[in-house]
Every structure is written in C-alpha cells, then in structure tokens.
Design a protein that fits this description.
It is a single chain. Helices cover 31% and strands 31% of the residues. It is an alpha+beta fold. The chain has one domain: Aminopeptidase, CATH 3.40.630. It has an 8-stranded mixed β-sheet with strand order 6-7-5-4-3-2-1-8. The two termini are 18 Å apart.
C-alpha cells in the first residue's frame, strides 16, 4: 500500500464502541438519531450485525448496522463521520457487510433512505441497488419520504461483478479486518 493511504480497521461493534458510534449517529442524523440505548439493545439482538471502521488509534470513523432475517439483510443505520466522508470508507464498510451476507447466505439487501440523501442513494446505486417504492412521510422529524431500495440477488453474476469491481477499486484506504 502507498504511504498516503489511510489505514482502516473493520471489525464487529462492541459495547464500549457505543458512545463513539452515538456521536457519529448524532452528527449524521441530528435529533432524528438512534440513542445509545438502541445500540446496546441491537448488540444483544441475535438478528443484528454491526461493524465499525476505526483508525489505528481505535477512533471510530464509521459504522453500519443491519438485521439478517431469513434471506434478507435490512440496513438499519449507516454513517461515516463527516471528517472522513469521500475517502471510500462507506464503500469498504458496505463490502464488509456484503461479505457477511455471503457467509450467512443472505440473498437480498434492503433499506430505507431519505429522498434528499443524495450521497447515500448514490452509494447504494453504485452497488446496484434500485428504488422499488416510496414510504410517504416516513421520517417523523420533517415528514420526508423514504425511498425503499433493494438489491437483486447478491449471488447473481451481475451483482458479484459490481461488488468485486468496487472492492478492487478501493485504493484510498488500506483495510485491515479483525
């Protein structure tokens, strides 16, 4: 790896990560965020999987949380610290999450996203996800609509090609898996 690459460690979220994750969640979602209690509850939920991206010093710069239910993974929350956006960390976390889906034989990925969240929509579309419906007035803070996005079967060659190309082209960071 080049010396100018950012080293990121991706690992499962632990209970002592919750305060840092909550700060990123608040930065990303303001008053319409998950509170610490929700994260602690999620870590005790056998259907949920949470990953964090950390710097070498242990500082958390992003996270993704999902529920694995039968053949479907539902992304529940996902955020990158503003200071570390546009550095391919979101792509790296998505790839790590998809790796879990492959391991768990999950076929589909779904989520809701604010219609105005162009960066998130762009990321999901990059991974081949499409908007399949709209949930009207889904977000309680401002009654904004949510796009419901869905992947095709991640075991299909089309999805695998997109995923492998993204994974191969993550060059701004060095990913270390724990």
């Amino acid at each position: 790896m080049k010396n100018d690459c950012l080293k990121i460690i991706i690992r499962g979220m632990k209970k002592n990560d919750v305060p840092q994750v909550s700060l990123i969640e608040e930065e990303a979602f303001g008053n319409h965020r998950w509170h610490e209690d929700a994260f602690y509850s999620e870590l005790n939920n056998e259907l949920s999987k949470y990953l964090v991206a950390t710097l070498e010093d242990g500082s958390i710069v992003g996270f993704i949380g999902c529920w694995l239910i039968f053949e479907e993974a539902h992304i529940a929350t996902f955020a990158i610290s503003k200071k570390y956006q546009k550095k391919q960390i979101a792509q790296a976390l998505m790839c790590s999450f998809i790796d879990i889906c492959y391991k768990e034989e999950i076929k589909y990925i779904t989520l809701e996203v604010r219609e105005s969240n162009e960066n998130a929509i762009s990321l999901y579309e990059k991974f081949g996800m499409t908007s399949v419906s709209i949930r009207k007035k889904y977000y309680q803070d401002n009654n904004e609509n949510a796009l419901v996005m869905f992947s095709e079967n991640i075991f299909y060659n089309k999805f695998k090609t997109i995923y492998n190309d993204i994974k191969k082209n993550i060059k701004k960071i060095e990913i270390i898996y724990e």
